[in-house]
Specification:
80 residues; alpha+beta; two-stranded antiparallel sheet; 44% helix
Length: 80
């Protein structure tokens, strides 16, 4: 769903963290492309964060904070 401005949230059930990481990477790869606008190629990309839990009682806000931290960690690692 569209969370805010240019932020989107995907909620899904996956069997384990490896499957969640694979899904995150597939989503990011599909968004790493370009589009043609008025005859000019415009690059697109996305930063994707991941939050997984099996902990009972974890609130949605905490999962969003975890995903946000993961996204910024991945962005920082990518820029090195």
């Amino acid at each position: 769903c569209r969370w805010a401005g240019d932020e989107f949230v995907v909620l899904t059930r996956v069997p384990d963290v490896a499957a969640a990481e694979a899904l995150r990477d597939r989503v990011a790869a599909r968004l790493d492309t370009s589009v043609l606008i008025d005859g000019e190629r415009v690059p697109l990309s996305a930063s994707v964060g991941l939050a997984c839990t099996r902990e009972p009682g974890v609130e949605a806000e905490e999962l969003l904070r975890r995903a946000d931290r993961d996204m910024y960690r991945r962005k920082a690692a990518k820029s090195r």
